[in-house]
């Protein structure tokens, strides 16, 4: 499904977006993600395709807002039954939908008696009662705690696939995008990148996109060698790194490099394997992060590094230590300077 949306107020948006299976739209807070969903649903004035020529109540769209908006005075089955036509089969139909999301046994509970994941599934059942052709989810992980987020979202995605409805979920959480069939990034009122999650996470097109996707290290430099069509050499004032070759980047081109903290690793003393991108650094600060250790490094360029548990325990690193670190060229993401 191809979605087009143009609006001026309350935010300027000019969106062209493919929705393929479970699609996640990422963006920082305030960029217009929720506004876009409301416009598609008909709750805000906008030029929208498809269904833009239909009144709100006629659009075959189901919309799950943040917090799920369940009626607190209605039981679970009554919430699900709310959009159903008034008939003798109304309760039976609502119970059937609750059964499909695994909550038939909780049909008589009020929202206050349900967990975050259970509320989400009641809201999903209520949305599906409309028999929509498109399902909109607004920050579906926002009301879930970290302990249950993965389990609840895995289950939700599985249920969505069973219903066979295209879904557009908006979020600032890149973890959710990892579960998607298709993803896009919203910035400055437009889509700046979209594709399969494996493609977008591996090759962010902009520094802002890379930050949103979890990159922590950014370096500005120039291409100094692009003759070998397997690698590029990029240099800054005191450093030089090798990256995988990209077409259209000639010698002298200004570029931005992005490195994930977890892709930088220690070069062990006496190691026999070749390190294509060695850097000598000093530990400026360090802190434990769960079972890992995050290091803040000084050297040719400031870097942030995340050591996994085995390395953190074996290395016994402390502030002031001098280290040799390395990053593989395939993990050096290169973007044209913004």
Automatic annotation (TrEMBL):
MF terms in GO: ATP binding
SUPFAM superfamilies, alphabetized: MOP-like, P-loop containing nucleoside triphosphate hydrolases
Superkingdom of source: Bacteria
InterPro entries assigned to the protein according to its UniProt record, in alphabetical order: AAA+_ATPase, ABC_SmlMolc_Importer, ABC_transporter-like_ATP-bd, ABC_transporter-like_CS, Mo/tungstate-bd_C_term_dom, P-loop_NTPase
Stretches assigned to the ABC transporter domain: 3-213
Keyword RNA-binding annotated: no
Keyword Transport: yes
Descriptive protein name: ABC transporter ATP-binding protein
Organism, scientific name: Acidithiobacillus sulfurivorans
Lineage: Bacteria, Pseudomonadati, Pseudomonadota, Acidithiobacillia, Acidithiobacillales
